[in-house]
Amino acid sequence: MTSPLRVGIVGASGYGGGELLRLLLQHPKVEVALATSNKFAGKNVRAAHPNLRGVDLTFATHDAAETTDLDALFLAGPHGTSAPKIRAYLKTARRVFDLAADHRLADASQYPRFYEGWTHPDPELLSERVYGIAEFHREKIRSARLVAGAGCIATSAAFALRPLARRGLIDPDHVVVDSKIGSSAAGAEHSPGSHHPERSGAVRPYSPAGHRHTAEIQQETGVKVSLSAHAVELVRGILSTCHVWLKEDLDEKAIWKVFREDYGAEPMVQIVKERSGLYRLPEPKLVIGTNNVAVGFERDPLSKRLVVLSAIDNLVRGTAGAAVQNMNVAFGYPETEGLPRFALHP
Amino acid sequence: MTSPLRVGIVGASGYGGGELLRLLLQHPKVEVALATSNKFAGKNVRAAHPNLRGVDLTFATHDAAETTDLDALFLAGPHGTSAPKIRAYLKTARRVFDLAADHRLADASQYPRFYEGWTHPDPELLSERVYGIAEFHREKIRSARLVAGAGCIATSAAFALRPLARRGLIDPDHVVVDSKIGSSAAGAEHSPGSHHPERSGAVRPYSPAGHRHTAEIQQETGVKVSLSAHAVELVRGILSTCHVWLKEDLDEKAIWKVFREDYGAEPMVQIVKERSGLYRLPEPKLVIGTNNVAVGFERDPLSKRLVVLSAIDNLVRGTAGAAVQNMNVAFGYPETEGLPRFALHP
Amino acid sequence: MTSPLRVGIVGASGYGGGELLRLLLQHPKVEVALATSNKFAGKNVRAAHPNLRGVDLTFATHDAAETTDLDALFLAGPHGTSAPKIRAYLKTARRVFDLAADHRLADASQYPRFYEGWTHPDPELLSERVYGIAEFHREKIRSARLVAGAGCIATSAAFALRPLARRGLIDPDHVVVDSKIGSSAAGAEHSPGSHHPERSGAVRPYSPAGHRHTAEIQQETGVKVSLSAHAVELVRGILSTCHVWLKEDLDEKAIWKVFREDYGAEPMVQIVKERSGLYRLPEPKLVIGTNNVAVGFERDPLSKRLVVLSAIDNLVRGTAGAAVQNMNVAFGYPETEGLPRFALHP
Amino acid sequence: MTSPLRVGIVGASGYGGGELLRLLLQHPKVEVALATSNKFAGKNVRAAHPNLRGVDLTFATHDAAETTDLDALFLAGPHGTSAPKIRAYLKTARRVFDLAADHRLADASQYPRFYEGWTHPDPELLSERVYGIAEFHREKIRSARLVAGAGCIATSAAFALRPLARRGLIDPDHVVVDSKIGSSAAGAEHSPGSHHPERSGAVRPYSPAGHRHTAEIQQETGVKVSLSAHAVELVRGILSTCHVWLKEDLDEKAIWKVFREDYGAEPMVQIVKERSGLYRLPEPKLVIGTNNVAVGFERDPLSKRLVVLSAIDNLVRGTAGAAVQNMNVAFGYPETEGLPRFALHP
Q: Using N-to-C axis directions, what is the helix angle for B152-166 and B252-263, rounded to 10°?
């Protein structure tokens, strides 16, 4: 029996960090050696994560990550906090999994455009890092020192669009991604927009155009994406409804084949397209708490439009779970290790 | 002082009928003379509508509508129940407002296609009836004997698309309407899909393509519409996110002008496009309980896409309130009479 | 025709102030002459109240209330802001309606105990002010210069308990009030506890004992009250479940008689106790947006316990609507004027 | 390595049965050999449980349970279906865990009173069966052939009251249990009361007195219980607020000691009583998906009232999880085996 992986989390007091803790503390091959938070330093992790009551783990300050030898280090702080420190972290940790946006884009020139003028401080590293969706880049993740966690909306949209897009089956100029998202995606800090009386019952088009994740989706699919994001009454979960036009009039069977070729052997991607029942197509409810991606589609009988639907839990598959999956790949563990298989129902 | 209008409602026990009762009972120019329900006949209206406690009104059977002289008769039963009786109703009532789908489409040939083979029994009447959106057909409604209530999703989408479409400003082949809808739109009858543990927290693509209301939207806008409808966690309300591509690269000001020309003088249409605050764009929350339509838009800085948003209360503007507005127009009352101006907040 | 009442609101940017505006702007006998907010001074009221879009009214600063002659002045600021200014307000306004807690308690000695040591600066005024529940103190309100708005939980509990308590029918030492409350009761300011991901789905015992409103309920009922308040998933509404023990084994009919005697003639109190249907007993859902109080009860067949239930909308009957009702009483208008009769359903 | 337990579930298509499947399919020591449902016989379990997509298991008919040798058989059908078959099941299965109400009460004479006249067909068995709360009856469960699953509300209330009650510390005649419950507790069948537009936003006193679980709580605590149950906006979860009066004026420390003595060593009971933070006291949110019971309390500074709070997930600790825990006890496995330790947050 081998000794467990020693892992650490920088920025472990947010929702992404909490979810990493929840998963890693129950992962059979892992020992959580470090969890940092400058705000909660010296306090037990339950101060930030009341669901982790009973865990014997205390927050350290961020700088501890630069002096602690680890097998895997997860960066769960906000955008802009990873890049300046990344060379230091790569010295203390064998593998680094950056959940922030700092290394998602391979092309440094995209950052200022989509991140309000932000310039990447270390573009050289971008050619080396791997985009953290194992189903797309598994081989590279096995040996990557730096894996960039994918954005949550980007993950849901990329899974829906990529099989069709990379085969050149869709009109690349008319791709609408209409996403519906839970409140946890905005993070653990309260704000006017997260005030319950205002957020409750919302169907709020908070980012109707120009969302940052557009860049990632375009990177992973090669098509031009028109993304609109809506906040809906939900804590966890994303549904992305992708409206595309087929170049040729493919029938349902042919489309099935495309998705099955790409995802048929994937243990954590479900092609959901039932003939009956309530849950005939993907829904966030049935993936909450899991690392599963549910993908399905419906042909418009009135036109060449195809509607592709994709549902994930933004904190698991959209953040922490995908990082754990990448860690499993990087260290040669079974890819589903430590990742719950079934959502709750109801 | 003139005597009040004598009005009646056929099929008054459903959610649409209840909403009509709520509005008409408080309308200063109206006396509710008849409310029918075969299921609840002989019982007080509160048996179906617990919010109407204290009202002295008893359900009659449907056939009473064929023998009661009325100024206005509202038909609030399900699709297929109005058409067979409509000639009889037009004899007893001066004006008929049909809230079912039976007279929405001017072109009888569209019915079998969108209503699963249903054939309209009296196509002649379709040329006479008026589509019940007063902002589009006010003059005709003034003198129409039969006004067809618009579908709820159709109403929200048509208000968003019509100003641009009728000016020929948008690509007519790539029009996506992505609608998010509350549970009351499915009616008062319980079903597996309305079971709370299953419906709660849903983001359910229940009609991703081929929705019936597509036909109405196309009729009122002249463009080809790709509609997808999603059930979200909400009892009342619809947000329609309309993704269109502009033929020319119009700037924001030019688009403002288009909407202002069509809606600037309308008391119940709000153009919502703020620079700051939480409610910068239309949201169902802020129209619930009112007959208001909120319309707004955002230009995609990355392409010629324009996102037009439209929010209504499906039971008021989408059903009962629009019918009351049409009644006001038909009888020469102020158009806002009896229609609450402000939604609750929060 | 008489000229409308000139009314003003100090602290009009919170939820209580917004609700007052919504009601007063639609009240047929009222002109809103003043709405103050230091935070929003100079801005249109829609900056704070997005549902009031289209209203031509600008926030003034608070001090304007000391120089504007008004028929009625409503004080809607937080606890502790009314008392220091009250003498000034009583000079400029004929009648003052204080919605804060500053004048709720007749006995000044209760304040330090229930309001964390706060001492009332002007105890003399307490003997003059009237507690603002018209059903209990209608005659005094007619002529009162200063009416103290009742607390929202206190209102719901007092309506449930008072008929039995003032007749001496219940054990005065074992009175449990278990209240369930929506998020709007905590006000318009965001906080960690109002952050949607934390507040959503909550059943949170936020004040299990010692709640401030205990003092008011005891004042109005004369019995010792054990109050526990819970935050539940709801924006508006309160249900108070009052568990009492009857001294004598009264049957249902006898209890009905008690409630009918006190409330049978009240237009805004509903005794809800049905034999069938979903809404057999009071529920917040059916009073939202109205000034109605729903009261009902159930005898425990296993003991002498009686469960009395009471539902209100915390922002209408619990705050703004009760103040409008009191204004109506004070100025001799019909008591229900400007107060919506029916809640939405569903 | 020993071979896994062969287990079966009768009535596996409801919410309790689905939850059992979710837990047992992931239990490392168990093989699910049988799942019955007459309605879904011959279909894959995902027909009833869409979260179990990908599981290779088909529903059998109920009678298969009478002919299949099993180590453990779980009965998850409705009340009244277990008792008539129990002798047959005890022949084919080594241990039977009845989740219905049929064997909860040791005293057969209580059944007609609390179960609308229902008479237990086999009272003899009641003396042998064990009430299925392991923390109360662990030793007996080790060797019991028949373990009766506790009711969900009863479980939450009994954990709150028992430590105080069995020490004689509370007034046994004034014990109020005010419970707030999610919609899943009413089961998988849709009904007028579960229709989303009616159930959403409910704070509904659906059983203000005389609830069946009263009998169980009295059995396990020895005090007379006044129970009221409310449906709140929640799918899963129960909070029971227990209002009791202390005989002596115990301080907080003394009460802590009582709870710590009973629960301090229990891995799945949490005493929750924090000085700060949002989650200072038990809340359903933080136990959803787990078998944990959270218990906490607050002393009323104004009287001898003590408020004891208890939160569980009705489908896990209130049904399926407790049964798995009992199975673990009965077969000598670690008691927490197969039971998730952490809830999701947020």
A: 120
d(CA C237, CA B133) in angstroms, rounded, equals: 34
Which ranges of chain D have pLDDT less than 50?
A: none
Candidates C302, C308, C313, C344: best to mutate against D (most CBs of D within 10 A) is C302
Q: Which of B222, B263, B259, B244 is nearest to B136 (CA)?
A: B263
Contact B244, B305 (CB under 8 A): yes
- Taking the C-alpha atoms of residue A99 and residue A217, their distance in angstroms, rounded to an integer, is 16
Please write the tens of the pLDDT for every residue from B32-46. 999 999 999 999 999
Residue type, A249: D
Interface mutation vs chain B, best among D184, D194, D196, most B CBs within 10 Å: D196
Peptide bond into D346 cis (omega under 30): yes
pLDDT in tens, D202-249: 999 999 999 999 999 999 999 999 999 999 999 999 999 999 999 999
Q: How confident is the model at residue B2 (pLDDT cuts 50, 70, 90)?
A: confident
Return d(Cα A200, Cα A232) in angstroms, integer.
8
Residue A1 has pLDDT above 90, yes or no: no
Distance from CA of C238 to the nearest CA of A (A): 15
pLDDT band, residue A2 (cuts 50/70/90):
confident
For C55-73, the pLDDT digits (tens) are 999 999 999 999 999 999 9
What is B271-299 written as a DSSP string? Answer: E---SSSS-SS--GGGTTTS--EEEEEEE
Interface A:C, Cβ pairs < 8 A:
53
- Checking if the pLDDT of C1 tops 60, the result is no
Give me the pLDDT at residue C171, please: 98
A199 CB neighbours in chain C (<8 A) are 196
Q: Domain C5-128, what architecture?
A: 3-Layer(aba) Sandwich (3.40)
Intervals of CATH 3.30.360.10 along chain A: 152-314
Q: Under DSSP, is residue B164 helix (H, G, I), strand (E, B) or coil?
A: helix
What's the pLDDT tens digit per position in A123-133?
A: 999 999 999 99
Q: Please name the amino acid found at residue D23.
A: L
Q: Where in chain A is the domain with CATH 3.40.50.720?
A: 5-128
Domain A152-314 in CATH 3.30.360.10: yes
The confidence score (pLDDT) of residue D2 equals: 74
C152 carries an active-site annotation: yes
ipTM: 0.97
Structure tokens at D112: 């007609």
Quote the mean pLDDT of chain A.
Answer: 97
Contact between A241 and B305 using a beta-carbon 8 Å cutoff: no
Would you give the distance in Å from CA A224 to the centre of its chain?
Answer: 20
CATH 3.40.50.620 corresponds to the domain C152-313: no
Instruction: Place domain D5-149+317-330 in its CATH homologous superfamily.
Output: NAD(P)-binding Rossmann-like Domain (3.40.50.720)
Of A188, A192, A200, the CB nearest to C183: A200
Measured between its terminal Cα atoms, the distance across chain C in Å is 39
Share of chain C above pLDDT 90, in %: 99
Which part of chain D is CATH 3.40.50.720?
5-149+317-330
> What is the structure's pLDDT at C2?
75
CA distance D21 to chain B (A): 18
Residues of B carrying an active site annotation? 152
Task: Show residues of chain B in contact with C50, CB under 8 Å.
Answer: 277-279, 286, 345
Our CA-based measurement puts residue C23 at a distance from the nearest CA of chain B, in whole angstroms, of 9
Predicted confidence (pLDDT) at residue B1 exceeds the cutoff of 60? no
> How much is the pTM?
0.98
CA atoms within 13 A on the CB side of D320: 34
End-to-end CA distance of chain B: 39
Determine, for residues D243 and C309 on separate chains, whether the beta-carbon distance falls below 8 Å.
no
Q: How far apart are CA C30 and CA C70, in angstroms?
A: 11
